Known about the structure:
Elements: H1 4-22, E1 29-33, E2 41-50, E3 53-59, H2 60-66, E4 70-73, E5 80-90, E6 93-99, E7 108-109, H3 118-123, E8 126-132, E9 138-148, E10 153-158, E11 173-176, E12 179-187, E13 194-198, H4 199-210, E14 245-249, E15 272-274, E16 281-286, E17 292-300, E18 311-319, E19 327-334, E20 341-351, E21 353-361, E22 368-370, E23 372-376
Parallel strand pairs: 2-7
Antiparallel strand pairs: 1-2, 1-4, 2-3, 3-6, 4-5, 5-6, 8-9, 8-11, 9-10, 10-13, 11-12, 12-13, 14-16, 15-22, 16-21, 17-20, 17-23, 18-19, 18-21
Amino acid sequence: MTGPRLHARKWASALFALLPCAAPVAAQQAVVTTQDANALEIGQAFLAHHGGQCYAILPTHVVNEAGRPALRREGTEGLLGETIDSAELGDDLSVARLDGAIRADCGVSALSIRRSIERLLQQGRLGTLRSINGDGTVAQLGVTIVDDDGRGMLRVQPTHQGNPIRKGLSGSLLLIDGVSVGMLLSVNARSGIGSVARIDALMSKVDAHLMNPATPAPGAAAGTVSASPTASLSSTHSAPGAGPRVLGWSALPIDESHRAANLTAGAEAPPWSSIPERWPVTIDLQAGDGVVTISGVMLDGRGVAAAGQLPARVEVFINLSGDTRGWRAITSTAVDYRDGVAHIALAPLRTRLLRLSFSATVDGGEVISLGRIALLQ
């Protein structure tokens, strides 16, 4: 066969060969840690959004060990989040709703995650366990698939015996040719063989949960996310007329009880307290219900035991559009406390979001603390 027909057949064959790898959907991942200054790495999760909410899909035992899990998304931005609640799906699988800055880039749509993996499993037995380090960088471990039980579970072992599947990798994604085919659940301490839930079986459980009408609807409970997490940073679950609410934070708290969310919580909540890895440390807030006009910011340090831990300098940014690129610097100033309270006056400004960037503490120490944040209107 020669001529145009041969060229056409060659082109069709080449195109067919490329199709399985043309647009693989690789879910974004996050490392799961304890919510404290030590930030112990407990496991892994992968992120997906659906119905205006941001979800982490991860092993149930990782959720239980972490308590109230904190998550750091892969990448240099270091977007942080925390679980609002979680649901057990059975077979050591859970799905958790997330809050925090991580919502601004919450993986792919849950419905777009590839379920058809039979061809990939038949093509080869070599794969990669992909995980996220504590600094957001990606780690990969070569593995061989040694068994498929036909009931939704795979068994894998390291390609090189000198690189075992270590503790903290539960929740890692198993990839073949860059496509997710499963999630690591556990590893046998004696044999070193890991158990992996196939992505098709796993996502069937997730789908059933997400489509279940008993799942809390947006706005039905405290902490519910109401808008698409990938649409803008202003996605929120605030009720009409609500005051400011913490949307994101750049550093973990010293422990779970001193979370950044406390900065706009009730009077009974403890102050926010953190030991940032990097300065400045930022707090992002939704200013209110939609666009609001503000004329100042109040930083309330009452309730902080050591006054030297209070912020000493702050830079204020506003964001009218709610887009991640919409931040605009307004002022940078030293913070002057009187009886534990500081007022930062601003010319009346319309905004959706507010960012406070703290670059130092009063005593110059590593611990920063603050009781409450209020906006003056």
